[in-house]
Amino acid sequence: MSMEEYVTKDGRRLRLGYTTGSCAAAAAKAAAWMLLTGVRRERISLVTPKGIALSLEVRDIAMEEDRVSCAIEKDSGDDPDITKGALIYACVSRNEGKEIVIDGGKGVGRVTKRGLDQPVGAAAINSVPRKMIRENLEEICCLADYRGGLSVIISVPQGEELTKKTFNPRLGIVGGISILGTTGIVEPMSEQALVDTIRVELNQRRANGADYVLLTPGNYGAEFIKGSLGIDPERAVQTSNFIGDGLDICRELGFRGALLIGHAGKLVKLGGGMMNTHSKYGDCRMEILAAQAGAAGFSPACIAAMLECVTCDDAVRVMREESEARCRAALERLTGRIAFHLAQRGGDGLETGAVYFSKEYGILGETGSARTLLSKILEG
Questions:
Q1: In this structure, are strands 236-238 and 173-174 parallel, antiparallel, or unpaired?
Q2: In sequence order, what are the residues at sequence separation of 6 or more whose Cβ sits closer than 8 angstroms to the Cβ of residue 161?
């Protein structure tokens, strides 16, 4: 049975889902109930940290004398989550201690690098899901009047295959997916989930001693970093459209500097102070370029032609055809505005810089601090 809770985003009614963490906690709760009472259970209830109550079907039940295994099917609602439909298993057994011990089995990743939610060597079951599992098992122990310890193994049979479609290999989580969720609920097209991913990667770099970090919005930037600068793109943290959030996190984590390298189609927007470059928040690329062209002395006809352009490359072409010297001047003015807005967002504690390029014309501009920042990043 699917959830019937909805949110409205951009005029669309979208169904909520529940996280792998909720699935793991519910499976563990059901398995513990059956182990300690001997009574088979086809449904289990769970209250998520967000306060939403779930009633979930228990799948693939295997009851033995000393252990019980069962699964909950992941439902991400209308969010395009790669784990949708995956079975999240919990196997619960008694142990000789007094504690609840939680670990990961097949298809659950293992942490190999510092800076993540769990320490190196631990199963990639994040702290909120661990808390949910523990609290729900304590509830069952109390109901069953059981005072001993329990061991819980969370597994995801599809996990090794699914993790290839996630950031896990890049982050140093090997062998499977992570068991995640801070609210227990999946909100469709959650921007917060993307920002959280950026935070995880930045936190990892900081925990490994980095003072300076390379940022890029996406694949174009990564390709340029590799092809034109000869730098391993793995050294860059991808911020997607969330450039402002990325800088905020850098400052919060205590980085000393951040260099942003990206395609002009994204970074031109920074010249107007837009720190989320998604088109739904506005597309002022041509207006920003045209304003700088006007200040650099371009003719009204050139500016009018620029405003009809669809791409930054085409706008640069229009400027170059009238005057290469004035084109350089316009781009220098734009670079100055990008530097200004990055510095404003970075604040006193974070040195910022940027390099922006086009596929046709190569590097179009770099702020004054860009090369120094790049040297410091490569030294780190």
A1: unpaired
A2: none
pTM over 0.90: no
Query: Can you tell me the distance from the alpha carbon of 278 to that of 148, in angstroms, rounded to the nearest whole number?
Result: 53
How do the domains of the chain map onto residue ranges? 6-186, 191-379
Q: Which two tokens stand for residue 355?
A: 């390099």
- Which residue bears the tokens 């699935």? 23
Low-confidence stretches of the chain (pLDDT < 50) are 1
Residue 79 burial by Cβ neighbours in a 10 Å radius (0-12, 13-18, 19+): middle
Measured distance CA(64)–CA(213) in Å, rounded: 52
E-assigned strands of 241-322?
Answer: 257-263
DSSP bridge partners of 71: 59, 89
Token pair belonging to 200: 């995880």
| CA 246/CA 239 separation, integer angstroms | 6
* Pair of tokens at residue 286: 């041509």
Nearest CA to 216 out of 377, 380, 337 is that of 377
Distances in Å between the Cα of 165 and the Cα atoms of 106, 120, 176, 331 are: 17, 22, 11, 38
Residue 105, token pair as written in the block: 């089995």
| Model pLDDT for residues 274-322, shown as the tens digit of each residue | 999 988 788 899 999 999 999 999 999 999 999 998 889 999 999 999 9
Scanning the structure block, which residue is given the tokens 């352009």?
A: 309
Q: Are 73 and 46 in contact (CB under 8 A)?
A: no
- Which class is 6-186 in CATH? alpha beta
Neighbours of 155 (CB within 10 A): 22
Are the C-beta atoms of 62 and 69 separated by less than 8 Å?
A: yes
- Cβ atoms of residues 190 and 239 within 8 Å: no
Q: Residues 247, 350: contact at Cβ < 8 Å?
A: yes
Q: How far apart are CA 40 and CA 31, in angstroms?
A: 9
Question: Distance between CA 86 and CA 343 in Å, rounded?
Answer: 44
Whole-Å CA distances, 9 to 187, 188, 305: 10, 9, 36
